[in-house]
Amino acid sequence: MMQYIPRLLTDIVSNDSASIIQLIYETLLLTWLLSFEYEGIVQLVRHRIIPQLHRVLQRVQKEKCVRVALMALWNMVEAERKYVQHQLNPNFTEWVDPGITVLAKLQERHDGAGGAHGAPIHGRRGPSLVAEMVSVGMIKTLNQLQRRKFGDEDILVLVEDLNRALEQNMEVLTSFSEYRGEVLSSYLEWTPVHTSAKFWKENAQKFEENNYEVLSVLGKLILETKSDVTLAVACHDLGEVVRYHPTGRNLLSLACLAGVKERVMTLMSHPHAEISKEALLCTQKIMVQRWEFIQS
């Protein structure tokens, strides 16, 4: 049954008739109740509930729907916080239901997303619920909600609390150490760090550290990975390094990147659409001196 909840929101959220609004509200209410149970969170997230809750916040004006969607998201944020705290310090004073360990199931990739054959996300301490919220654009939507006037004052409190939690985590999610850990795990996914222009501007030169350690692994992934998602993300990241590093495409003459440029060019004809797209963009960034001048 759990898989039908996100699907139901997908089908009905674009309709704002009175009867549909009530159905949306009842679906959100069920989602919120399930989010109090850790196993409920696991099942909801596996079936892509976070993008659907984000869609509700973007499109549905009814306050009761907005409020319940925010409360469900907040329960997920709190669950992740407690899980991470419990893992780092099992003896910390806040009581945690022993059942919270079920959230470890979300460390695995599902439905073909991420690593090959559902490989675990190495180096992660727990579920990436906040990372997923950030990656779907939740911070921008919350900022827009902060400018709305609500009759229910509790909604703005929820918006501010959720926004604060996401922005605090954004600093960690877009740190170079977090990025390094992901690259060295050999499994890449579209976490917020990859699409953050601020990250690339501030950290491009850090790719020189430890004798180009991270850049070397990135090149190796492009040459050897069997994961479509990892390959697409690696092509994207190489293009961003070339784009923002002071020496730009000259980096590709490094011994650790031997054959990488040629590999990227061949990937432009890859049958997987995302890989061919990212390979094309990467090649353009390699070939063009001032990339910003040709951006649309």
TrEMBL record:
Keyword terms: Hydrogen ion transport, Ion transport, Transport
GO cellular component, one term: vacuolar proton-transporting V-type ATPase, V1 domain
Record SUPFAM superfamilies: ARM repeat
Residue ranges annotated for the ATPase V1 complex subunit H C-terminal domain, each copy included: 173-291
Pfam families: V-ATPase_H_C, V-ATPase_H_N
Name this polypeptide is given: V-type H+-transporting ATPase 54 kD subunit
GO molecular function, a single term: proton-transporting ATPase activity, rotational mechanism
PANTHER family: V-TYPE PROTON ATPASE SUBUNIT H
KW Ion transport (keyword) present: yes
Presence of the UniProt keyword Transcription regulation in the record: no
Parts of the chain that traverse the membrane: none
Family assignment from sequence similarity: Belongs to the V-ATPase H subunit family.
